[in-house]
Structures are given as C-alpha cells and as structure tokens.
Design goal:
Elements: H1 2-7, H2 10-16, H3 21-35, E1 40-43, E2 46-49
Antiparallel strand pairs: 1-2
Helix pairs in contact: 2-3
Length: 54
C-alpha cells in the first residue's frame, strides 16, 4: 500500500517490489476479500490507494 501511495500506481509499486502487476493485484484482491472492503480503486490511468496521506 505504501508503494502505491508513493508512486501513484499499482504498476509502479509492483515494479519497485520486483513483482508482476498481476501478482500485486491478486495479493491486494485477496486481502480485500479477507478484510471485507476495498483498498484500491480503479481510475483512468491506473489504480489508486484508498488510504490516507499521513
């Protein structure tokens, strides 16, 4: 989540962690299912983290 907040996109965050977009996306979706709420949202140009900026 920190990587998405810092880079502004899931693709960039995945690259910095040396993983594919699909791996990162699937990990986040699995976590969202367990938590019962969304952590990221889709928008034109990428996915956005729903966390705070603090």
């Amino acid at each position: 989540m920190q990587g998405i907040a810092e880079t502004g996109s899931l693709v960039s965050a995945a690259r910095t962690m040396h993983m594919s977009y699909s791996q990162a996306y699937n990990l986040i979706k699995a976590l969202e299912r367990r938590l019962g709420f969304a952590l990221i949202t889709s928008q034109a140009g990428g996915r956005r983290w729903l966390g705070t900026d603090s």
